[in-house]
Design brief:
The complex is a heterodimer of chains A (193) and B (240).
Chain A lengths: L20 H4 L27 E6 L1 E2 L9 E6 L13 E4 L8 E6 L4 E2 L5 E2 L2 E8 L6 E7 L8 H8 L8 E6 L2 E3 L2 E2 L9 E2 L1
Parallel strand pairs in A: 1-11, 2-12, 9-10
Antiparallel strand pairs in A: 1-5, 3-4, 3-8, 6-7, 8-9, 10-11
Chain B lengths: L1 E5 L28 E2 L38 E10 L9 E6 L24 E5 L5 E7 L4 E5 L1 E5 L2 E7 L7 E7 L9 H4 L4 H5 L2 E4 L1 H7 L2 E4 L2 E3 L2 E5 L8
Parallel strand pairs in B: 3-12, 3-13, 10-11
Antiparallel strand pairs in B: 1-14, 3-6, 4-5, 4-9, 7-8, 9-10, 11-12
């Protein structure tokens, strides 16, 4: 490893702005003749639909308004804890009318932590939009899983973090609700990863 | 055992999240401090395959043109390298860009600026870096444009960049500005970065060496993503 004093500065973030769809999901705004598919349209190809789950929700600002100009990106392993290439990556936006996003994916398996403690199944989630000078990072955990023994959640709990904000609630078989609160008393826990 | 970890992000070199001069941040910027966690899945992938790319994806002067008509404005080359904080070039980094046309108008229904769209220009492009971490786009000079903030303000000329390096934790979304643009210093989004050197690193430099070869103005914009460390594993300290 090179000496730390030679480390370059990371390039700073800037907001993705309101027109991010042009570059990130052109087909979604009817720029149809450029890319065959928008990047991350589906997280996995060739999965059995019966075993898939839906995670749906909204992203709320400090006024309690559900936003429709945010972009969400997720990264996860498959049901066996495996990932390769871009399998496991998805990118989506809330629906213009309902203001809800919908991720149709497999429920991730267990991934091992770097210190070999098992982590509860989760999906990494990032949020970019107008008004956010940096992309935000959080995680989606699942109601019904063992969340007591998870090392990350325990750490957050010990520091009085809002663990509930990280857990998708099961409302039906294979359907989970996960809302993101950018501000307010329900503010979601965001991570420095 | 050897484990990978990301260089800790230096927030002093990053924009303030909560920066009221940029009005849209007021009700969107989270108020609580971010919680530091050891990276896990965030350090592996996603990696994108070059099969996703079309031939003209990095040529915005052609990829939306009708009947071989060129977009309006002057052509520019935007090029540079993507490396990590240890100066290692990153191969196969996916760069997606988007920008306004020469008149400062985006091809987007939410753009209310009363400037003309250009039927031959989408403002959308992408590329994967070569083995030496280099990338190159052919595009046109984007115009500056007015937008509502604290009253009407003007965005400096810029191109939006979204970059995937080797892993989710290196993810970067930013903007490149153009050397010499007097609007840069007036822009609250730029000024949300307090560190002057960091601010300057977002300004693409006029690169006459490239310009002379192809008779097109060129700008050089190098991008640094977070470093990935390989370290021998000892008991990791966790904390906030």
């Amino acid at each position: 490893m090179k000496n730390s004093y030679k480390i370059l500065d990371e390039t700073p973030f800037q907001t993705a702005g309101p027109f991010l769809h042009i570059g990130c999901m052109p087909n979604k705004i009817k720029i149809n003749n450029l890319y065959k598919n928008d990047l991350g349209k589906v997280p996995f190809k060739n999965k059995n639909e019966i075993e898939m789950i839906t995670v749906e929700g909204s992203v709320f600002d400090g006024n309690g308004i559900a936003l429709d100009d945010v972009m969400l990106e997720t990264w996860q392993c498959d049901e066996n804890g495996q990932f390769f290439g871009d399998n496991g990556f998805a990118r989506f936006i809330p629906d213009k009318l309902t203001k809800k996003f919908r991720l149709f994916t497999v429920k991730p398996g267990q991934v091992e932590n770097l210190d070999e403690k098992n982590q509860s199944p989760h999906i990494c989630l990032s949020i970019s939009s107008r008004g956010l000078n940096m992309t935000l990072n959080t995680r989606i955990y699942f109601e019904g899983d063992d969340l007591i023994n998870d090392p990350i959640l325990s750490m957050i709990k010990n520091n009085k973090g809002n663990i509930d904000s990280l857990v998708a609630k099961k409302i039906q078989k294979n359907i989970y609700v996960f809302n993101v609160f950018l501000q307010g008393n329900k503010e979601t826990v965001f991570f420095d990863i | 055992m050897n484990v990978k970890s990301l260089v800790k992000r230096n927030y002093k070199k990053q924009p303030e999240i909560d920066f009221p001069d940029y009005k849209s941040s007021i009700f969107r910027a989270p108020k609580n401090k971010k919680i530091s966690i050891p990276s896990n899945l965030e350090i592996f992938g996603p990696i994108f395959n070059k099969k996703i790319l079309g031939k003209l994806d990095n040529d915005l002067t052609s990829n939306f043109s009708k009947n071989k008509m060129s977009p309006l404005g002057h052509k520019i080359i935007v090029h540079g390298t993507v490396s990590d904080q240890f100066s290692n070039p990153i191969k196969g980094a996916l760069i997606e860009i988007w920008q306004a046309n020469a008149a400062g108008k985006y091809l987007h229904q939410d753009d209310k600026n009363p400037a003309p769209i250009d039927p031959n220009f989408s403002g959308c492009g992408r590329s994967l870096t070569s083995s030496d971490g280099s990338y190159k786009f052919l595009t046109i000079q984007p115009g500056p444009y007015p937008y509502p903030n604290r009253g009407i303000e003007w965005r400096p000329m810029h191109i939006h960049f979204s970059i995937f390096g080797e892993c989710f934790g290196q993810r970067l979304i930013t903007q490149m500005y153009f050397e010499g643009d007097p609007l840069i210093n007036l822009c609250p989004m730029v000024n949300s970065i307090a560190d002057e050197k960091a601010k300057k690193s977002l300004v693409g430099k006029l690169d006459t060496s490239q310009s002379n070869i192809q008779n097109i103005l060129a700008y050089k914009f190098d991008i640094v993503l977070r470093g990935v460390k390989q370290t021998y594993f000892e008991n990791r300290q966790e904390g906030l």
